[in-house]
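Trying the structure run again after the queue cleared.
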Amino acid sequence: MLTNVCYAVAGLMLTVNGDVVFGAMTEIAGVVSFIYHYLQLDLGKDRNEVRLALVIDYITAGKKMLIAPHYHIFHDV
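Done. Tokens:
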């Protein structure tokens, strides 16, 4: 769950520094990650709901990872 706190802090810092899109993507990835971990703890790892949440978690984190290099190349970071 500490990862989710890092998502929240990073997203907030990005948004405050004017990068609303990348900040929002970071926040969304954190929320989806939290939902996945919550469902995993609440329902158990072998439930279809948890598997779906994991796929969505991978998609949101993957999008962020694919956009991050573009962000660093075209923004002064």
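The chain has one domain: 2-74. Worth checking whether this holds up in the mutant runs.
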